[in-house]
Description:
By secondary structure, the chain is mostly helical. The chain has helices at about 1-25, 30-45, 55-70, 75-95, 120-130, 135-150, 155-160, 190-205, 225-240, 250-260, 265-275, 280-300, and strands at about 165, 170-175, 180-185.
Amino acid sequence: MCIIIIIMTEKQEYLEDFKLYLKSEKNFSDHTIRAYCADTYTFLLWIGNLDAKDIDPKKFSEYLYFIQQINYTKTTVARKIASIKAFYKFLYQEEIIEYNPIDNVSSPKQSKTLPNFLYEDEIENILRGIKIDTPAGYRNRIILELLWVSGMRISELSSLNYENLNLEQNEIRVFGKGAKERIVLIPDKTKDELINYIQNVSDLIHPTSKNQTDPIFINYNGYRLQNQSIRKALKQAVNSIHFTKKVTPHVFRHSFATHLLENGADLRVVQELLGHSSIKNTQIYTHVSIQRLKDVYNHTHPHAGE
């Protein structure tokens, strides 16, 4: 029993140090850190009395076989592998282990699915369905419009402070995955609506000082509006017009990228606006545009169905 307690204590120390490494050195988001630590903790529990330093490729292969029997999706399995690989990379860098036993383990290939997107008139119908005769309604409409015209992630938008705005240049500074900074752009119409929200509407929700570090979007208690509230506002807007497609804040981001490419934007520009670290992540939207062209062709050309 004493040996088991000592082993678990060591594992917990590894995990705490790993968590700090992900935050301070890798700049991972809190969400990713929680997922990676949970995956690693599950693995450490699975190996039982074995020390994390004593794992070899064969033992890890047994674990892979184990998790593949639980009917996880390929995406989940890939993340679990990535989590544990990051953990062992950390152990190796800290010279806790002499070699990385799973360095050459490859993740399962994931099937590529085209991201969902909305047509421009569909998004406009959703926005028009939001009643702006209340302060919260006006706030919700500008939030959803910002998601569409800027391509921001919901977490990036909810974390905006006044110091992030450069409205004279139609720019907003955001921090994406891994605390990576980038500039997103907004059109004049959206800028004017945002200025009106700041100057005339936000104080009707709750009076604030509007200091540089204060949140832009707030609830009736004056606190930062959370992601869950934004998702709820979008759901209400979609339901109000009896829209049947599944719509999430990320679908607005997908739509933003798709609309840019369809209107001739350069792929590298879209990559920069989305904050993708790799062009491969952006290229999926070219497939969306091509598929849309095929759908239009099949529905309109008189000989397409022959």
